[in-house]
Amino acid sequence: MKKKVLGLLLTVSMIASCIAGCGGAANDGAAPAGDGGAAATADAGTADAGASSGGSGTVVILYPGEETDAMANFINNELNPRLADEVGIQVELIYKGWDQYWEQKDIMLAANQTIDLYWDGLPDLSSMVNKSQCQPLDDLIKANCPDMLKVIPESQMAGGVVGGVQYGIPSAYAPSSCMYQLVCVREDLLEGVGMNNIENADDLKEFATKVAEQYPEMKGPADVIFKPLTRNFADEQYTWCAYADSVVYGEDTKKAYSYFETDAFKKVADFNHSMYEAGLYKDELTTNYNERDSRMQQGTYIWVEGSLGKENEIVSAVRSNDPNATLKSYLLNPKADKYITACGGEVLCVPYSAANPEGAMKFLNWLYKNQENYLFCLYGPEGENYTLENDRIVLKDPGFEGYFYEWMFRNANYTLFTSDVSEDFINEYKSWDDDAKTSDVIAFHFDNANVVEIETAINEVINQRFVPIECGYVDYETAFPDAQAELKNAGIDEYVAEVQRQLDEYFAANGYNH
Questions:
Q1: Which has the closest alpha carbon to 83: 107, 110, 56, 118?
Q2: Of the candidates 361, 416, 300, 423, which has an alpha carbon nearest to the alpha carbon of residue 33?
Q3: Disulfide: which of 100, 109, 187, 254 matches 514 by Cβ 3.0-4.6 Å?
Q4: Which one, of 325, 323, 326, 318, lies nearest residue 298 by Cα?
């Protein structure tokens, strides 16, 4: 076990960004199957060459994933000619692979390299504001985005407000309760082992055990799914409300807690450790945590953290490796309350280094102007890769994954489903939030300005000590006492107290009576 722990410590920095809230958001999407490296269409240091003021010229977009020939052809020969003709701009994408996107984003923004628009996870918006990574957008939106505001309502935009200032555009306007709390499983294998439902952690372990016995060629789970498991084990709904998933808000008790000191965390750690002890988890789940989506898409793994509709987003990639694969997402502890915890998990921001912020806003306004433009960015011109039949997208090539990520710009006013999506799912999707509650902290953004040094120290302890426990890589009972002592010394109690103080101020300012 000591060798395993040493090996983990050498790779833990690869995990940290995905344990953080924004990492959850990133991996929610249909990440490209080969997301291990980095590519770029332009060097960021020279990317401002074509930019100009007044919202014309080039809009430089930092984009997660890998460039493909198809995407390059679409941008250069189809999208940019339309944008030049209709808006007077063109876009240029700088690609950074999923395994290094957040690190490279921080480096590039700190160096003031020209980026006009970038994507990240909404839960970390306040930290991005404190690091001066995003500029106020109120005037830019007012001047350039009348069409966008028609389809992204004020209640959604409020999620991008920090300190009364609009710093980000919460871009995923869609049903969103229980975000990051589902598990996406290989439904064909579930049926193959004689099961028809997943409701709890015991069902998951039974599923993994039976697959290992009946399908020995499969590699087991692709993900330790700690947030779905937290929903399974917690006595109340927990909503993460600070950096790096360190602090949760109890929706029933109305208090902030150190997540790693909750009973739910212990149960998650114990479950994951039992999966390791049974040989159902492989070391790569911890040492290469951030590759979980690409693992699932290889067609040899049985589950990954899900979201509403994730099965539809990644099934083509999975089937490219296993043509018989079918996927389905299950909500653990389905009878527990469902909460809408964020105004969409994605956020679009404009950094201070932007050379063409007006152009960035004009691009977004054009994208959201109508359904035709929206679908064009996702799939290209109608008739080329798809046709529309009875409000369904019929792909000419079932393996075509589209151009811009659908989840990055998802909008309920424009969403259409491909012809292979079942009516049952569409009905479930449309009614998903009908019985959901709105989280008390839906628009709360923690300001870490008073506790930056403490936060840094806490995160170091989390990455070095608690990630191995959380993933089940080491035994909770053995490792937790020393890890907790280090967390206390790093200042977790003071950190939680600061979160609670800001929550109390937020509740008072917004008329809550707890």
A1: 56
A2: 300
A3: 254
A4: 318
The pLDDT, as a whole number, for residue 145 is 97
Task: Express each pLDDT in 386-398 by its tens digit.
Answer: 999 999 999 998 8
The position carrying tokens 């006595």 is 235
Q: Which residue type occupies 47?
A: A
Question: What is the DSSP code (8-state) at residue 464?
Answer: I
> How big is the chain, counted in residues?
514
Q: Where do the H-state alpha helices sit in 323-392?
A: 357-367, 371-379
Q: pTM here?
A: 0.79
Q: Which pairs with CB-CB distance under 8 Å and at least 24 residues apart come from 378-383?
A: 378/402, 378/403, 378/404, 378/406, 378/409, 379/403, 380/74, 380/78, 381/78
Burial tier of 147 (Cβ tally within 10 Å: 0-12, 13-18, 19+)? middle
Q: What is the pLDDT of residue 316?
A: 86
d(CA 315, CA 297): 8
Instruction: Give the three-state DSSP class for 18.
Output: helix
Residue partners of 225: CB distance under 8 A and separation at least 6: 183, 303, 304, 305
Residue 250: count other Cβ atoms within 10 Å of its Cβ. Answer: 17
Cα distance between residue 407 and residue 104, in whole Å? 22
Question: Are 343 and 122 spatial neighbours (Cβ–Cβ below 8 Å)?
Answer: yes
C-alpha distance from residue 365 to each of 65, 115, 179, 354 (Å): 24, 18, 26, 17
List the helix and strand counts (H, then E) for the chain.
24, 18
Residue bearing tokens 């957008």: 137
Alpha-carbon span 299 to 320, nearest angstrom: 8
**Maximum Cα–Cα distance across the chain:** 65
Please choose, from the candidates 312, 361, 320, 343, the residue with its C-alpha nearest in 3D space to the C-alpha of residue 438. Answer: 343
pLDDT recorded at residue 489: 98
* Full set of structural domains in the chain with CATH: 1-20+177-341+444-514 (3.40.190.10), 38-96+100-174+343-383+406-418 (3.40.190.10)
Return the amino acid letter for 270: D
- Report d(CA 277, CA 230) in Å as an integer: 20
Other beta carbons within 10 Å of 502: 20
Q: Counting Cβ atoms within 10 Å, is residue 111 exposed (0-12), middle (13-18) or buried (19+)?
A: exposed
Task: Name, in order, each residue with C-beta under 8 angstroms of 47's C-beta and a sequence gap of 6 or more.
Answer: 58, 60, 92, 94, 113, 114, 115
